[in-house]
Amino acid sequence: MCEELFVSKYYFIRKFEQETGCTPKQYITELRxxxxxxxLVHSSKSLAEIAREVGFKTEKNIIYAFKxxxxxxxxxxxKNLYENNRSWWQ
Length: 90
Fold this sequence. Notes:
The chain is mostly helical. The chain has helices at residues 2-5, 9-20, 24-42, 47-54, 59-70, 74-83.
């Protein structure tokens, strides 16, 4: 993108953060986590399948991202979801 816009990556990151409040990497991670949450709710796919589908290279990467953003693992998220009768969705 930076090449097409004729700007440095540092300028792009700074401008992106000014406009959105987060870095491009944080934004993409949030999108991936949102998609993963949907798949955790609406599918019985394994964590490895979900990780690959949403763009994480490994299960370890998706677990790390979930812990950092949601303070829980994807499996804890899925387990709590059913225990709490899907209350997070509302």
